[in-house]
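Hello again,

I reread your note about wanting to compare the complex against the isolated chains. To keep things tidy I'm splitting this into two emails, and this first one only covers the full assembly. Below are the input lines as submitted, including protein chains and any nucleic acid or small-molecule components. They are followed by the predicted structure of everything together. The single-chain runs will come separately.
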Amino acid sequence: MSIEIDHLGIAVRDLEQALRFYEQVLGMEVNHCETVEAEQVRVAMLPTAGNTAGNRIELLEATHPDSPIGRFIAKRGPGLHHIALLVDDLEETSLRLRNNGVQLLNEPRAGAGGHRYVFVHPSSTGGVLLELVQK
Ligand code: CO
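Full-complex prediction:
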């Protein structure tokens, strides 16, 4: 089994404003932008060095206040929202977690870039919202 970091998800109030820092000041580049209707979120992906499958920063801006990112920002302000790990077999991993009493927040489904994912409740992960992404 191999697990690697796919991306770090950062909740921002204003995507354009965040990109002024990450692109224009820091010098990263967006290689993918998308609105994910199911999550009511606008996503910008910025690969880090190497530009492999993973190793990206994901900036997330709510398209509606009453959405997962909108509620997160209302409660806690902008900041690190989740860590995403790539797994070999998302179905198998999800089943194994469930069998160990771990709470998953959704059934495996397609998100940004068409990748299948589940979110794992922070109560099992050391307090961090964890996203598992199918490799
Ligand atoms: Co993510």
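For quick reference: The domain at 3-134 is CATH 3.10.180.10 (2,3-Dihydroxybiphenyl 1,2-Dioxygenase; domain 1).

B.
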